[in-house]
Amino acid sequence: MNVNKLQKALVTGETVAVEFKRCTDGISTETYKTVCSFLNRYGGDIYLGIEDDGTVTGVPENSVPGIIKNFIKTISNPELILPTVYISPEIIKYEGKHVIHLYVPPSSEVHTYKKVIYDRVDDADVKVTATGQIAALYIRKQNTYTEKKIYPYIKKKDIKFDILVRIRQMAVSRYAGHPWKNLNDAELLKSAGLYGDDKETGSRGYNLAAVMLLGKDEVIRSIVPAYRTDALVRKVNVDRYDDRLIVATNLVDSYELLMEFARKHLWDKFYLDGDIRIGLRDIITREMLVNTLIHREFTSSFIARFIIENDRMFVENANRAVRDGIITPDNFESVPKNPVIASFFRNIGLADELGSGVRNLYYYGQRYSGQNPQLLDGDIFRIIVPLDNAFIFEADSGKVQDLKRKNKAQNLKRKNKAQNLKRNDCALIEEAILEYLGKHPEATQKKVAETTGKSRRTIQEAIAALKEKGLIRYEGARKNGRWVVIVSAEKAIK
What we know:
Heat Shock Protein 90; seven-stranded mixed β-sheet; 17 helices; four-stranded mixed β-sheet; alpha+beta; Methyltransferase, Cobalt-precorrin-4 Transmethylase, Domain 2; 4 domains
């Protein structure tokens, strides 16, 4: 896939998001200027070992390890790149030559290289020095990413600084020379982009990303009251739930709690990748949970969910979509929703480079259940992974085989699959509607549809069903009436 991407870049040539660099025995200063300008603009791909005209000269094979090591060391040094970033170089073999690929994600921070700001204009890296241009760059970033909003009244007492001990350990475990190891708490927060200035208002302090990653629970609730992840298991009692966990703490601890919930309720099938045993369950749930935690829109009132059923598991969360539709490894475009938070997770080893999650879900999903996942992009983002406990991946032949179902319970499960999925979906929709109308009794059906991410027709049918069950009623005139919730969402699912 990456070779195909390289071939397309060679045909197109250098653009605002593609740069070729000659590289023999080291990385030039110009390369780091391009890294800085890509971070400040739309992100992009840098290919080391290619001339400006697209001629592939390659990087000497014996120099590749040293070049990669020096690159990681440089971009992790706050004296050179500030805020620091995490980029994972990739080696591509093309026509017998070695090319180093650097994917630079767009950032919600304004970055400097050697204390100079660079921006990308067409295929050139331009030094930004004028005060007006610098201010415009900051404002553009802050208007795009809500995680960058500054909260000047958040103080040290509102942040869980004790977590930083664990954060440093996790960062050093990923990269022994990680600069966070020797930074004090204040320096680490600035390096991670969690503390800074608002160039539009002049305020200074912790931003929303800092609150979500390190904030105390009561502080998170006061700023984003709707934030939580509702984890449910619906295997036996499909109308209610068999187990439930509501997680509303910082993102780092939320990840650990949700992973434990997944380990409790999912099989970890045996799988060998070469001679290495791979935990399929942990890989798949890690990608699902990391995505729903770090790429959600925190200002939305939509409650994120992680639900495990007999035939599938899925996550859903509010999203700032750039397009609607199904995401596959072939059409995926790396557009981070919260770059600061995503970078933080990459630094501590809980996330990889953007795009790897989609590839991992498809690759390991086939080995876990024999079926591809579904990734649905829109105002509500969903990842649906099929489950099949009877499926075994045959590693020796590299083929997947679906073993015959041997017991009566599994045959009954397959027979009623469509009916159960429909009933579960309806229960989720009705629960969401009850919860929303309880807080917003004047809401229109159109507003309910926009909030839940469902079609107008689906909401109309669900509301009709709720009225028929006696759970809600409408009082007053059509234009200025209000909904009355007779039974709350919490009671309705019991």
